[in-house]
Amino acid sequence: MGLTKKNPRRGSKKSREPHVSKLYIDISPQQLPIIYRKEYNVHFVGLEKLHPFDARKWGHIFKYLKDALLVNDDTIIKPNEALQDDLLLVHTVRYLKSLKWSWRVAMIAEIPPLALVPNCMVQSSYLRPMRFQTGGSILAGKLAIERGWAINIGGGFHHCSRDRGGGFCPYADITLLIHFLFHHEKSRVKLAMIVDLDAHQGNGHERDFFNHKNVYIMDIYNSGIYPRDKRAKQGIRRSIPLAHLTEDAEYLHLVESNLEEALSEFHPDILVYNAGTDILRGDRLGLLSISPQGIIRRDELVFMKARERRIPIAMVTSGGYLKQTARIIADSILNLYDKGLISGLK
């Protein structure tokens, strides 16, 4: 797959040559485009327990789907790791070099003691899993175009932009997913929509696509929590701020009505769905009050709106900080399958 890096500031001072990425792999017609590998899971000598995030959420989701016989170790799509050359399509050299300092990664991961851990351990235990998840998001874009839909069990690092990480997000996987499609000669993707339904404002991709007419961003988020990024907010085409403890009825009405209007205004070649579950009632970081059934219905609405318009949809799982979120995500994916919104055929 040839990708031309058109912005020399992302690589050397000279224009970079096209390179062949190993992220775009082919799958068999019998495989569902559900993406995961065991390397997604984060582990750094127990320090992950200092963060409220379930660092093995992705493995738990896979186990639930496997127990339900939707996928297994042979049929799950295993992505490759996003390497330096892949990341440079979006990220600056300076930013990627900054990740070689443990104190910088500790700030991004929001685990201060990580600053004392040798960077080689930080790379292998945290950043490498995030690079595999980033590779999974990029692959989800390709498979969505080919199969009509794709789900990366990981990814959704919406607080990371091309030159800045934060909020547990070290790589701009959503921005990369879209730029890979824009740069790939066979995808024919010219217009993209991001529907960000994580509880937090998606300031990373909003900064990256600020004034980018080919990318429409709809973001429904709790306006009273991190990151409160006023500059990034200017990159949102349809911004729907929520109050603390918003409940199912109001939330689902806002999702359905605003997505319907957004898709009437803009006709994307792909819809990237950031399906954060930190909207769940009791999540201390999201501070909303959506039930498990509300999350399942939300995902159903987004897929239904995309599928009835034959818009390819790529889903990433993003935030979700309670132990039960893995079960809810798995139940939602199973519901999408039961409702015929995801299947083996386009």
From TrEMBL:
Keyword Transcription: yes
Subcellular location: Nucleus
Keyword ATP-binding annotated: no
Documented EC number(s): 3.5.1.98
Catalytic activity field: N(6)-acetyl-L-lysyl-[histone] + H2O = L-lysyl-[histone] + acetate
Domain Histone deacetylase: 51-333
Pfam families: Hist_deacetyl
Alphabetized InterPro entries for the sequence: HDAC_classIV, HDACs, His_deacetylse_dom, His_deacetylse_dom_sf, Ureohydrolase_dom_sf
A single cellular component GO annotation: histone deacetylase complex
GO biological process: epigenetic regulation of gene expression
Family the entry assigns: Belongs to the histone deacetylase family.
Protein's name in the database: Histone deacetylase 11
Species of provenance: Gryllus longicercus
